[in-house]
Amino acid sequence: MKKQILAFFLVFTLLLTGCANSSNKADLSDYDLLTVTDHNFITGNYEDIMTSLLAKEPGIYFFGYATCAWCRELVPELQEVVSEANLYVNYVDVSDRNNWTLALNNELTEFGSQFEEGAQYEGVPYVIFVGDDGTLAAHVGTLPTHNAQQRLMTDTERAYLQRVLRETIESVGLSAQE
């Protein structure tokens, strides 16, 4: 009988965990260049995400919004990389002014000031990588040579951006997430 009860609770816990992950999927339907629907972007309470980031909890934190030309192009490439590595992205839609406040923006600006020039928070898209040991790295925009308001990235640029993102994940030592 005890084994049956234990098995029931184990199955129940697994079901709850699976439901939590699917219910936390970010709504990326407005990212028109993202062709997959089963993506690795999750969303949550903005304050909680900032708290996790400030506590240097391992993960990838993406700040952006769907009508940002650079964000539209970065999201599919980031998705490709994180799906290969079995990672998830904590997504913050900074266009949602009801939740993304000036205080949170200032908090992110202060946090981003610790990065070298070129990786500090000045706008979106902004991706922060936190490794298993708290090692930090950041990525801003797409590529320095790319102007998303003028043209889409070429296949070569997309491949290079994916390489940069992969190398950043490796450099911080971020392990696959369950």
From TrEMBL:
Origin: domain of life: Bacteria
Signal sequence range: 1-22
Keywords in alphabetical order: Signal
Cross-referenced Gene3D superfamilies: Glutaredoxin
Protein name: Thioredoxin domain-containing protein
